[in-house]
Hints:
The chain has 6 helices and no strands.
Amino acid sequence: MTTRHTYDQELENLRQDILRMGSLVQMAIHDAVQSLAKQDVELAQKVIDGDDVIDKLEIDIEDTCMLLIAKQQPLARDLRIIATGLKITTDMERVGDHAFDIAKIAQKTAKQPLIKPLIDIPRMAAMAQKMLQDSLEAYVNLDIALAEQVCRADDAVDDLYNQVFRELLTYMMEDPHTITQATQLMFVTRYLERVADHTTNIAEWIIYLVTGQRLRKK
């Protein structure tokens, strides 16, 4: 087996670990919001326990990247592959943290009647999940057009975030008894808005991977 073949296999293993991490954080967001909407404390605990797996995977990927840099001293596109891997995993770990935070709120509110049926929050989550799914697909296929589509999709999440925030604020003003739970739900919407932002970052890093150019949306 040639040195280059071994190196290419190491880069492929890195890519597979990144995709595995992406799958885990995507499921974590889904389960966290479901645990909130269904007031399912066991599902929330599953998300909380799973955060350690995501954190360890991030560390393993970082170690792999640093080892590849030290061993191979990569240049040009190979260096971009490794550097992009480091950046993408950082953003995905933040997404995992937000899933953890939402699951914690799900546990806090599980014994309280919901002040309203949760419709828009799961919709926000679905939009953010779709962005993450598309960004992973763009990563696999080095698809700039799809990565750019992910960046544009962030605006719709921001709009929904502002809408839900205003609605929850109205609940709080009309009935002070809703303030505690409405505040918690505001945190959830903020976390989901941040998930979309981190996913946009991922898409931008994919564009950099392919083109070598940094394009900042914000």
